[in-house]
Structure formats: C-alpha cells, structure tokens
C-alpha cells in the first residue's frame, strides 16, 4: 500500500519558495471570469486560468525554471524527454539561462512542438512512438554525457514549479469551490493539490484513452496503462509519478474521464466563444465541464486550467483573422 502522506519536500512553504525563485522568469498568467450560461451551464461561474499564455506555451515552463535554478547544472547541460510541451519549456529555460539542452521526443509529438523546441536552440532528437521511448533514450544520453535529467513530472523541483499555478490561482481568485486540472504524468495536479490541500475540490481530468491516474487510484499505486487519443502528445504518460501519487490519494477529490470528441468540442467552444486557441491537452479540463462529466452545482464557482496552447494555427483571410486547426 502506498502511503497517503505527501512527500515532505512538496509543501506550501516549498512551493512559495519556488515561486520566489522562478517569478522573474515566468509570466503571471491571467484569469477570466465567465458566465456559465455562455456554454449552457446556467447558475455556474467559470474561472479560466490561461496558462497557455505562459512562456513556451504551457505551464511546463514553471517546472523547467524551478529545476534549472535550484539544481547545479553540469557543463554538459540538461536533457529531457517530453511529448512536446516539457521539452519546449526546458529548451526555453535553458536558452534563457545560457545552458545547453538536448530534448528527446516521440514521433507522436506534434510538428508545432518540435519546431518550438528547435526554435529555442535545443538539440532535438525524435525517437520511438511514445513518451516512454523518448524517456529511455534520454536516460541513456544522460548516462553517456553527464547531462542533468529534467523529468517532466516525477521530480521534486518539477512539482514545486507546477504548484505555483495553484499559488497564483488562489491569489487571483480565492473564492473557488472546485478546480479542474488535466492529468498526464501528474506533475501539474500533484503540485496544485499540494498547494490547496483539501481546502477546495481538486478534480483530475483524463482522456478516456489515457486513464493513467484513474487506474492508479483504483489499484492503490501507480500502474502501467495503455495510452493514446487526441491528446497523446501531452496527456499520455504510461504511468503517473511516484511523487505525485500520495498527494493525489490525499487531496484529489476525483478523476473524470472524457472522450476525444468532448476534448475537440471543448477546443471549438473555447475558440468560438472566447477566441482562445487551446491544444487538446489544454482543453481537456474544460471538456469535463462542457460534457457534464463534472456535474456542477447551482451557484458553484469552478476554476478550469487551460494549460497549453501549442497547436497549429493557420493565418489567412483578412488581417488578424485566424482559423485554428482542430484534430
């Protein structure tokens, strides 16, 4: 049985310290308050935190800077495995801090994310079909080169950095009743749940095609899970991290599963109503709300994290017009 005691290093105090460390290097992303009636959800206030506006296009930049600023970086630089967003974040942070970076991604990583990684000056290696393949290759490179491994989710500094999303959100809106968070490897929801504890409902959202945390909670420990689906480049870790799991056991109220079509519908609704262009993983949490997989109560104030926006956008037509390409 896995202990339900959160790791000692993942605390509110430690998250606050991490925030002080990374604050000069990140954006304090905005929140917007939306009437749920705009989406057919009468009597509900929706508060969206637009973490897709973070540097490098996702929340991952917080964890990347937390790692690079808190740990000693060898001359060989850093190495990371990623479905795309973590790699872009590490590449961005490494460039800004003058450190070399090599990023391994699987073939499922979108071309947009691959281009972003290259654009930040990192050495990009595309290998294997899934994140686990890229992870194995990155571990081999780290052993060979001496580069420092920056894990996408199962590293204390990563969780502390992602926990700063919760810190900011609470400062920006202290009246939330619930917060919906997309889950891949679990670094984001682990950090956020460590920040909030059980003071509000922290609800995980996963694609039906990648129920990694749901299966782990059912089993009582992290387990390997077959993953895929429309959000496979960001929400398809084979298993959740060991560090986040006891936090989830203690403080994640539930996990809601959403089908791929609900994720695509959420992307379209965010664009149509708010002109927000979110990637599939970035829209997953909102999909749980829109599809009623998360049932709201009248008068409830629900926070939703729009966590990533690294997706294709085609520019054309009149000046300023954009047409997002949904999967």
Task: Jot down its keywords.
Rossmann fold, 6-stranded mixed beta sheet, 12 strands, alpha/beta, 39% helix
Give me a quick take on this structure.
Helices cover 39% and strands 17% of the residues.
What does this structure look like?
- With 327 residues, this protein is of the alpha/beta class.
- The chain has two domains: 12-58 and 155-315, Rossmann fold, CATH 3.40.50.1100; 60-149, Rossmann fold (3-Layer(aba) Sandwich), CATH 3.40.50.1100.
- It contains eleven helices and twelve strands.
- The strands form three sheets. The chain has a six-stranded mixed sheet with strand order 1-2-10-7-8-9, sandwiched between helices. It has a four-stranded parallel sheet with strand order 5-4-3-6, with helices on both faces. A two-stranded antiparallel sheet has the order 11-12.
- The chain is globular and about 55 Å long.
- The termini are far apart.
- Residues 315-321 have low confidence and may be disordered.
The major β-sheet equals: 6 strands, mixed
CATH class of the largest domain: Alpha Beta
First-last Cα distance: 40 Å
Tell me the helix content. Answer: 25-40%
Number of domains: 2
Mean pLDDT: 92
Q: Please list the strands of the largest sheet in the order they lie side by side.
A: 1-2-10-7-8-9
The count of β-strands is 12
> What percent strand?
15-25%
The coarse overall form would be globular
| Separate helix tally | 11
The Cα radius of gyration reads: 18 Å
Low-confidence stretches: 315-321
Would you tell me the structural class of the helices and strands? alpha/beta
From N to C, what is the helix and strand string?
A: HEEHEHEHEHEHEHEHHEHHEEE
Q: Any idea of the CATH topology of the largest domain?
A: Rossmann fold
- The second-level CATH architecture of the largest domain is 3-Layer(aba) Sandwich
């Amino acid at each position: 049985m896995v202990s339900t005691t959160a790791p000692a290093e993942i605390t509110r105090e430690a998250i606050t310290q991490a925030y002080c460390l990374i604050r000069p290097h990140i954006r304090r992303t905005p929140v917007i308050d939306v009437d749920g009636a705009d989406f057919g959800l009468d009597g509900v206030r929706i508060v969206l935190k637009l973490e897709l506006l973070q540097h490098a296009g996702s929340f991952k930049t917080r964890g990347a800077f937390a790692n690079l600023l808190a740990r000693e970086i060898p001359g060989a630089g850093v190495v990371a495995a990623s479905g795309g967003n973590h790699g872009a974040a590490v590449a961005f942070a490494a460039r800004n801090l003058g450190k070399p970076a090599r990023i391994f991604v699987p073939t499922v990583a979108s071309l947009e994310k691959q281009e972003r990684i290259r654009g930040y000056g990192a050495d990009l290696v595309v290998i294997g079909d899934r994140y686990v393949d890229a992870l194995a290759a990155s571990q081999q490179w780290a052993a060979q080169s001496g580069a420092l491994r920056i894990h996408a989710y199962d590293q204390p500094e990563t969780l502390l950095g992602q926990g700063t999303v919760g810190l900011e959100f609470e400062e920006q809106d202290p009246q939330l009743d619930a917060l919906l968070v997309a889950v891949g490897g679990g670094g984001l929801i682990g950090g956020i749940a460590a920040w909030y504890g059980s003071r509000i409902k922290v609800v995980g959202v996963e694609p039906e095609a990648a129920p990694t945390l749901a299966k782990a909670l059912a089993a009582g420990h992290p387990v390997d899970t077959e993953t895929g689906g429309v959000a496979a480049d960001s929400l398809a870790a084979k298993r959740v991290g060991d560090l986040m799991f006891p936090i989830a056991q203690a403080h994640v109220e539930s996990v809601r599963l959403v089908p791929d079509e609900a994720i695509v519908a959420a992307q379209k609704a965010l664009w149509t109503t708010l002109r927000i262009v979110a990637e599939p993983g970035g829209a997953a949490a909102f999909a749980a709300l829109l599809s009623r997989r998360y049932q709201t109560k009248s008068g409830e104030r629900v926070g939703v994290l729009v966590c990533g926006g690294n997706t294709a956008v085609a520019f054309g037509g009149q000046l300023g017009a954009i047409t997002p390409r949904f999967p």
